[in-house]
Write a structure and sequence with these properties.
Length: about 350
C-alpha cells in the first residue's frame, strides 16, 4: 500500500495522472518561468470587490501561505497548487512595457489599478527583479492612481514613487496582517515577514504621509480570531486609518493544502478549526457564491463581524474608501503630439 506522507501538490482537476511518493516528497528547487501574456491588467467583475483593475507581476508566491485562495490558479498553468505554487514562479518581465501600452490606449481613462489582486507583488523575488517598482514608475509618469495590497515590507523601498503618485493622482497601501502571534504566523505563512515587522511597515508608510490600512485576512476561526482586536489596536497605534476583515475561504485545492498544514502544525486544534470553517460556509470548507464568499454566515461569524465593527468605532478607524483621482491621468507629451490633448 502506498502511503503519502507529504502532500507536495494536491490532485489537480486538470491532470489525469500524478505521482505519489512512498516517502517524504523531495524539496523542490526554485524555478522561474517567463510569462508571454500580451496584457498585464486583469479586469474584475466580482461585486464582492471594490476595484475593477488589478496588476499581478508574478504568478505563484514565495511567501508560501497555507491558506492562499490563489493556489488553484496555478493549476491553469499545468502546475500544482502545493509546493509548485511556492517554488515554480511565473514572472511577467514585460509588465511595465505592457502597462505603458495599456495607458496609451484612448480607451484608458485613468482608472484605479490595484497591486495585486492575486499573488503578492512584493514577494521576495521583487527585491531583485523590480517588476512592481517598474510598474509603479509607469503609474507615476502617467499620473494613474494605485492601491497596493501586500504582506511584503519591501513596499517601503518604493515610498518615493508611492508618495509621488499619492500627491498627483492618489495612492494607498494595505498591509495584510492576519496573525499577531509570530509562531502561528510562521507555521501558516512561513516565508512572509513577521507580524510585528509588517506593523512597523504600517508605521513607516503612515509617517511618510501615505493612507495605510490593515487587512485581517483571512480570519481563521479558532486559530487567529483571538488576534483580531490586538492587531487592530497595534495597527491603529502605528498609523493605520482603515481596516478590513475577510473570513477564510478555501476554493478548490487550497482546501487540501490548508488542511494538511493545519493538521501538521496544530493537530489538537485542527478539528475545531475545520468545524468552525464549515459552520460559516454552509457545511463545506468553501462557499464561492458572490455575496457570501467574503462574509461567511452563521452566528459565529456574525459575532466576529460585530466585534470588528465595534472595535473599529472604538479605535477611530475611518470607513474604508478608495478615492482615486482619474482626472489626474495624463499621457506624457512627446514631440509635436504634445500640442494636442491626448485624452480626447
Amino acid at each position: 500500500m502506498v502511503r503519502r506522507l507529504s502532500l507536495a501538490n494536491p490532485p489537480s482537476r486538470f491532470e489525469r495522472f500524478r505521482v505519489e511518493y512512498t516517502e517524504e516528497a523531495p524539496e523542490a528547487p526554485l524555478e522561474l518561468y517567463d510569462d508571454s501574456s500580451q496584457s498585464i491588467l486583469s479586469e474584475n467583475e466580482s461585486p464582492d470587490l471594490g476595484f475593477r483593475f488589478s496588476l499581478n507581476p508574478y504568478r505563484g508566491c514565495l511567501h508560501g501561505c497555507a491558506y492562499c485562495y490563489a493556489r488553484p490558479t496555478h493549476e491553469y498553468l499545468g502546475f500544482g497548487a502545493g509546493s509548485d505554487f511556492e517554488r515554480k514562479i511565473v514572472v511577467k518581465r514585460r509588465a511595465a512595457e505592457l502597462l505603458r501600452q495599456t495607458f496609451e490606449k484612448k480607451s484608458w481613462q485613468g482608472e484605479l489599478v490595484v497591486f495585486s489582486g492575486n499573488t503578492d507583488c512584493y514577494q521576495p523575488l521583487e527585491q531583485k527583479l523590480e517588476l512592481t517598482r517598474a510598474c509603479l514608475a509607469v503609474c507615476a509618469e502617467y499620473g494613474n492612481p494605485v492601491h497596493v495590497i501586500t504582506k511584503g515590507v519591501l513596499v517601503e523601498r518604493d515610498l518615493d514613487l508611492l508618495t509621488q503618485i499619492m500627491k498627483k493622482a492618489g495612492a494607498g497601501v494595505t498591509l495584510s496582517v492576519p496573525f499577531f502571534d509570530a509562531e502561528v504566523a510562521r507555521a501558516m505563512e512561513p516565508y512572509a515577514p513577521p507580524p510585528l515587522r509588517r506593523l512597523e511597515a504600517v508605521r513607516r508608510l503612515a509617517d511618510a504621509g501615505l493612507p495605510v490600512g490593515v487587512n485581517v485576512a483571512p480570519l481563521i476561526p479558532g486559530l487567529n480570531d483571538r488576534d483580531l482586536v490586538p492587531i487592530l489596536e497595534a495597527a491603529r497605534a502605528a498609523g493605520a486609518t482603515s481596516a478590513g476583515m475577510v473570513p477564510l475561504r478555501l476554493p478548490g485545492s487550497a482546501a487540501a493544502v490548508f488542511t494538511e498544514r493545519l493538521r501538521a502544525s496544530f493537530p489538537l486544534a485542527a478539528d475545531k478549526v475545520l468545524a468552525r470553517v464549515r459552520e460559516m460556509r454552509g457545511g463545506e470548507l468553501n462557499d464561492g457564491r458572490f455575496g457570501a464568499r467574503m462574509q461567511g454566515r452563521g452566528r459565529y461569524i456574525e459575532t466576529v463581524h460585530e466585534l470588528f465593527r465595534v472595535t473599529l468605532k472604538r479605535l477611530g478607524y475611518e470607513e474604508r474608501e478608495i478615492s482615486p483621482r482619474a482626472s489626474a491621468f495624463r499621457r506624457p507629451q512627446r514631440g509635436q503630439l504634445g500640442l494636442f490633448d491626448e485624452r480626447s
